[in-house]
Amino acid sequence: MNRQSIYKYIGFTCLSVAVWACKTPQLEQNTLEKSRNMPAAYTTNQADTANTAKLVWKDFFKDPYLTALIDTALKNNQELNITLQEIEVSRNEIRARKGEYLPFIGLRAGAGLEKVGRYTSKGANDATTDIKPGKEMPEPLPDYLISAYATWEIDIWNKLHNAKKAAVSRYLSTVEGRNFMVTNLIAEIADSYYELLALDNQLAIVNQNIGLQTNVLKIVRTQKEAAHATELAVKRFEAQVLATQSMQYDIQQKITETENKINFLLGRYPQRIQREIQGFENLSPTPVQAGLPSQLLANRPDIRQAEFDLAASKLDVKVAKARFYPSLGISAAIGYNAFNPSYLLNTPESLLYSLTGDILAPLVNRTAIKAGYANANAKQLQAAYNYERVILNAYVEVANQLSKINNLEKSYDLKSRQVQALSQSVNISNTLFKATRADYMEVLLTQREALEAKFELIETKKQQINARINVYQALGGGWK
């Protein structure tokens, strides 16, 4: 067989190996398309494009004390600052992936000493080599090197470029994750702030009732001295006053815990939260406009985050698939090499250079590559299902809060009328009791029912405000 035939045989063999290595396993690629089929509106009679989510949070929240708290939290909240560092990590990951498909160039310098056996092929040759007439190669043999070298993997299958694109998508995902955290943080602070105002008003109602009940207790004691009431009535009214006083301390503890919760979100140690206590019952809940469900795709940061995760997972599949293909690498070097520093820069005697190209293809035992490819497909499906889940969850959250706003408005109107009726009944029962025309039990029950109704009215008002905060959050407002 002549030399030309041998070269043809080797070339044919290499080509066959490369083609075989390029074959990827027949794994199921059930790529789930993004489902954007959403209902046209949240309710049958609502199809307006006006959307409250477009408002920045400083325009949505009018209370200056609340806006000051939110502004402080956006600067000092530790969890938010941790997320900002995660964004920085993702940004650096992009730079790392970008550097992988660019040529790597470096400098190399070294010095060494080598002694080989004389009765070896290399030793025998060195022993008979004359560097100058009558002067043999030195033994042991020093070695000095200075050179520049470069390596470059040619990204013929876009494996490295796709890895960089996936890193970009994950970076954008972390940015949207930060935006989603901002939305949640603002809503949590606002919820806690209005809960604090509700507790303040509940405490004021308790103190007011303590005064009323104490006056009634004095009347009962006076009636007992006049033999118009019994000791049983006195003790029942005393127990009522003590129970109401106990509620006072329970509410004060809740106020302390709520203040500390807000301070924690603001990244500071406990201190009093500045707020306007008066006028809570007269607060007008901020009106909201839900817009169209399709607007959630652009407004909700968690949906955008899931979308970027899905894009990254698709690129990961391409990267995993490219690992089945041969990789092409080029390496080069140029420099000087000599056994004596005085000869190191002699040109061309000490000059060295090299240029090498190699193809590396996986041939046998590709189990790890197949497993990586299967995992990438599975994670892509996970990301697709998660994208659908996040969209569905966003729609349900908005629909629930809109329904809650509507029902709470009706409930608040009825509870207001209930409180008004019970407040009148308290005055009537006190008047009748003074005239000995009503039993003390009627007075006690009326006072208790009136107190509970006032508490429920404040709770309903708080829920009304929180429902609007929550729908603002569910629509994707607050992060812009």
First-residue to last-residue Cα separation: 76 Å
Q: Give the name of the CATH architecture of the largest domain.
A: Up-down Bundle
| Total tally of structural domains | 2
Average pLDDT for all residues = 85
Largest sheet: 4 strands, antiparallel
Question: What is the ordering of alpha helices and beta strands?
Answer: HHHHEHEEEHHHHEEHH
Relative strand content: 5-15%
- Whole-number radius of gyration? 40 Å
CATH topology of the largest domain: Outer membrane efflux proteins (OEP)
The overall strand count is 6
Largest sheet, spatial ordering of strands: 1-4-5-6
Structural class: alpha+beta
Shape type: elongated
CATH H-level name of the largest domain... which superfamily? Outer membrane efflux proteins (OEP)
Percent helix = 55-70%
Low-confidence stretches: 16-22, 24-34
CATH class of the largest domain: Mainly Alpha
Number of H/I helices = 11
Keywords: Coiled coil, Lipoprotein, Membrane, Palmitate, Transmembrane, Transmembrane beta strand
Main location: membrane
GO cellular component, one term: plasma membrane
Organism: Mucilaginibacter pallidiroseus
Kindly describe this structure:
The chain is an alpha+beta fold. It folds into 2 domains: 27-101 and 157-326 and 366-474, Outer membrane efflux proteins (OEP) (Up-down Bundle); 105-154 and 328-360, Outer membrane efflux proteins (OEP), CATH 2.20.200. Helices cover 62% and strands 11% of the residues. The protein has helices at residues 3-22, 57-60, 64-76, 78-100, 121-127, 159-225, 231-265, 296-299, 301-322, 367-434, 440-474; strands spanning 104-114, 130-132, 135-136, 141-154, 327-338, 351-360. The strands form 2 sheets. A 4-stranded antiparallel β-sheet has the order 1-4-5-6, with no helix packed on it. It has a two-stranded antiparallel ribbon with strand order 2-3. A hairpin with a 2-residue loop joins strand 2 (130-132) and strand 3. The longest helix is centred in the C-terminal third of the chain and has 68 residues, at 367-434. The radius of gyration is 40 Å and the shape is elongated. Residues 16-22 and 24-34 have low confidence and may be disordered. GO terms for molecular function: efflux transmembrane transporter activity. It is a lipid-anchor. Its main location: membrane. Residues 70-97, 405-468 form a coiled coil. Belongs to the outer membrane factor (OMF) (TC 1.B.17) family.
